[in-house]
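Below is a filled-in request sheet from our internal design queue. Each sheet records the structural input a requester submitted and the sequence that came back. We keep these sheets so that new team members can see what a complete request looks like end to end.

REQUESTER: design group, bay 2
PRIORITY: normal
MODE: inverse folding
CHAIN LENGTH: 626
BACKBONE (tokenized):
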């Protein structure tokens, strides 16, 4: 029990410290206000007692009216001052809340920026990340509860001292009667929080189902397959399931609390009768009745405040513990390298094995290859072979279990991670587009863009074959992509977004082009043009690109064939075709597809001509015009 109280107090201190860091001035003001509030409340009750005593003796005491007037002026002054301070507190609270929310959001963004990619790829970790995003705002509840706890302590101590002078046992009885309610609330708080953790995944599913019907990405399919009502029914069914679980728990808690709350009410009734009897015997005044009854309410309110604050802090403590646990989670990809990578010479995979943390089977198994400066390497294979994983490992999004990845003969872990990633111009198969301007999307990460850099942006647009849709943008580079942040923004096709991603890679002008299915969303003509430009842009640079379209490997000096996480072949295009092994089979398979389709089109075209003209087609010698 002592440890739990200690842990709860530490949680309170942790949150108050966060509040102090957000704004020391507002934190101090709110603490002083909460300390003053119960003191002023008890002073008002005591002044009320004096007022009642003077009012009783006003006919028998000549000075009673004067005292009554003075007390009234003091009481009015306290009321006006309290009201003014309350209005100021409301103003300060609003500002303090905004600053705290900004501080908490900033902390959350900082954490999300620096965690490993594993936290987003692994559903278990991602659930924790979502839970932390929700629980970070529990910090504000703990802060206000901590301030309320201090205020309730002062209220309890002051009113207990006054009540104890009349009857110590009544005051103690009130405390004892409040203990069962506090214990019960704490018990159900823990149960309720555990339930919320159990429902994290289902709540995420609930949000996902909602986004399917309200988001843009699925709008066409929803209408095409007429699945709106089905998804809506799943949402409602899941919502009711979660709702009834919470309702069942809350119903039981409310019933038990209602029974337990009768205990302190009984003590209060007993004490009220006790005071009335003392007044009837002349042992207390009418003012004393007002004082003691007011102090009973103050004491009960203080006890309730203590219990509620403590329970709230305990409840939010579980959430804060979740936040702390997330903050204490160690990244596996440490940026502890000291070498700065300036010039690229070689990239080598030496017997590399890799398994994603959430899986048990190897994604890559004994992978070895070497890329030299200026080489253009194509990595080909079926979907799921491990091509994209190799790209992630080169960028150190993950670290390997066995083997070594070297750049210039050094383990990539020896390089400062930002220096390592800076040498790569990268484009992934899934186009990543931001709701910013076209300029910001291409020159991403640049704070200020000079005229020379603007020229590089135009070069990148041309190299990505993006002029065709650029000229339709009325605001040029200042055109917002998507309408998420700007109603005048433009919505592009998947292929056009892919070209923007390629333009971003070309703009960076790094030493090493790292392209993961760069033409996945492009039409054949655009794909051909992009790869023609890619051949020119890659001159003097190193390039590694993945593709399952084998027609694109003609620009490569070296081809690596990967299947089920293993390299089964590597060599030049001519060498691999000459061997007539796996690459030859895949290459011929795609070539035959195009050849067969072309023959079918030509045959159909000849049949159509013969059917249309039949015997009217005359074979004549061409006339020579002299």
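RETURNED SEQUENCE:
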């Amino acid at each position: 029990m002592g440890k739990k109280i200690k842990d709860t107090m530490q949680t309170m201190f942790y949150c108050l410290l966060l509040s102090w860091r957000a704004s020391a001035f507002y934190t101090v003001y709110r603490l002083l206000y909460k300390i003053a509030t119960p003191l002023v409340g008890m002073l008002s009750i005591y002044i009320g007692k004096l007022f009642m005593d003077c009012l009783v003796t006003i006919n028998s005491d000549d000075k009673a009216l004067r005292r009554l007037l003075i007390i009234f002026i003091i009481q009015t002054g306290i009321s006006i001052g309290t009201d003014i301070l309350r209005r100021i507190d409301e103003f300060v609270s609003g500002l303090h809340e905004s600053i705290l929310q900004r501080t908490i959001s900033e902390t959350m963004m900082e954490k999300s920026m620096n965690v490993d990619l594993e936290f987003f790829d692994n559903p278990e970790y991602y659930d924790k990340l979502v839970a932390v995003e929700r629980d970070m705002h529990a910090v504000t509840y703990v802060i206000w509860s901590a301030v309320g706890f201090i205020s309730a302590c002062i209220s309890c101590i002051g009113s207990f001292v006054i009540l104890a002078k009349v009857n110590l046992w009544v005051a103690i009885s009130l405390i004892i009667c409040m203990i069962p309610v506090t214990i019960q609330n704490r018990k159900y708080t823990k149960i309720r929080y555990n339930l919320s953790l159990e429902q994290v995944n289902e709540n995420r599913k609930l949000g996902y189902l909602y986004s399917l019907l309200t988001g843009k990405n699925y709008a066409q399919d929803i209408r095409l397959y007429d699945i709106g009502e089905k998804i809506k029914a799943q949402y409602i069914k899941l919502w009711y399931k979660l709702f009834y679980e919470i309702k069942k728990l809350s119903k039981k808690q409310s019933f038990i609390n209602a029974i337990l709350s009768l205990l302190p009410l009984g003590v209060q009734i007993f004490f009220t009768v006790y005071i009335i009897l003392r007044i009837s015997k002349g042992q207390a005044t009418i003012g004393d009745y007002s004082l003691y009854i007011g102090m009973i309410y103050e004491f009960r309110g203080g006890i309730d405040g203590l219990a509620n604050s403590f329970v709230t802090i305990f409840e939010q403590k579980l959430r804060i513990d979740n936040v702390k646990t997330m903050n204490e989670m160690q990244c596996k990809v440490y940026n502890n390298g000291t070498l700065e990578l300036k010039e690229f010479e070689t990239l080598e995979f030496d017997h590399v094995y890799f398994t994603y943390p959430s899986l048990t089977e190897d994604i890559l198994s004994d992978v070895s290859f070497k890329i030299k400066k200026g080489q253009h390497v194509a990595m080909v294979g079926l979907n799921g072979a491990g091509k994209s994983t190799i790209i992630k490992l080169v960028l150190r999004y993950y670290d390997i279990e066995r083997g070594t990845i070297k750049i210039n003969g050094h383990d990539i872990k020896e390089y400062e991670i930002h220096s390592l990633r800076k040498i790569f111009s990268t484009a992934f198969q899934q186009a990543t587009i931001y709701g910013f301007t076209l300029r910001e999307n291409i020159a991403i990460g640049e704070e200020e863009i000079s005229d020379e850099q603007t020229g590089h942006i135009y070069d990148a647009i041309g190299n990505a074959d993006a002029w065709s849709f650029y000229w339709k943008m009325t605001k040029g580079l200042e055109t917002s992509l998507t309408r998420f942040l700007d109603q005048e923004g433009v919505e592009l096709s998947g292929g056009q977004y892919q070209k923007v991603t390629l333009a971003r890679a070309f703009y960076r002008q790094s030493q090493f082009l790292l392209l993961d299915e760069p033409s996945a969303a492009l039409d054949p003509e655009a794909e051909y043009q992009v790869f023609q430009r890619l051949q020119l842009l890659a001159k003097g640079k190193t390039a590694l690109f993945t593709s399952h379209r084998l027609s694109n490997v003609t620009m490569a000096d070296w081809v690596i064939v990967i299947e089920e996480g293993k390299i089964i072949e590597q060599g030049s295009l001519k060498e691999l075709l000459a061997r007539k092994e796996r690459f030859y089979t895949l290459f011929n398979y795609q070539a035959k597809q195009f050849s067969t389709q072309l023959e079918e089109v030509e045959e159909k075209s000849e049949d159509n001509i013969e059917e249309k003209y039949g015997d009217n087609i005359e074979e004549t010698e061409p006339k020579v015009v002299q």
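SHEET NOTES:
- DSSP finds 21 helices and ten strands in the chain.
- The longest helix spans residues 64-114.
FILED BY: M.R.
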